[in-house]
Design brief:
Layout lengths: L1 H17 L5 E8 L7 E8 L4 E9 L14 E10 L2 E8 L2 E11 L3 E7 L5 E9 L1
Antiparallel strand pairs: 1-2, 1-8, 2-3, 3-4, 4-5, 5-6, 6-7, 7-8
Length: 131
């Protein structure tokens, strides 16, 4: 009985330590061509409850991008809906729905943003890598 109890405790601790988080985080960085900051970093976290969190940082140059976590991000949230094989990200800022809706497709390694072109086709506009 004593050994069974120890095995159950050990198993429970091991499962909690090695359990995986179902949220996926994707990262993109590059020049943003603004007047004050020249390099932008964006993180998108897809949550398991069909919501997302969008974090955006701006740094002065490309050398500073690896330390972007030291700065305060601009954060917005939204909801995810499915439209065929694509997903629609609807952004909410300050609790209010905005006009921003993005068409995306994601998997375990990549998140791709699309924009419409002629004949109702879509073209990739931005690619994010999973971190």
């Amino acid at each position: 009985m004593k050994y069974t109890f120890l095995i159950l405790i050990f198993t429970s601790i091991t499962l909690n330590i090695f359990g995986q988080d179902s949220d996926r985080t994707y990262l993109r960085h590059g020049h943003n061509y603004s007047t004050t900051y020249s390099y932008g970093i964006t993180e998108i976290t897809i949550h398991s409850d069909s919501t997302f969190t969008w974090k955006s940082w701006s740094v002065y140059n490309k050398k500073d991008w690896k330390t972007y976590k030291e700065y305060m991000p601009e954060i917005s949230n939204g909801k995810i809906t499915r439209n065929g094989e694509y997903y629609i990200l609807t952004e909410y800022r300050n609790g209010n729905k905005t006009d921003f809706n993005w068409t995306v497709k994601f998997n375990d390694k990549r998140l791709n943003f699309y924009y419409p072109i002629k004949n109702e086709k879509l073209r990739i506009s931005a690619k994010y890598k999973r971190i």
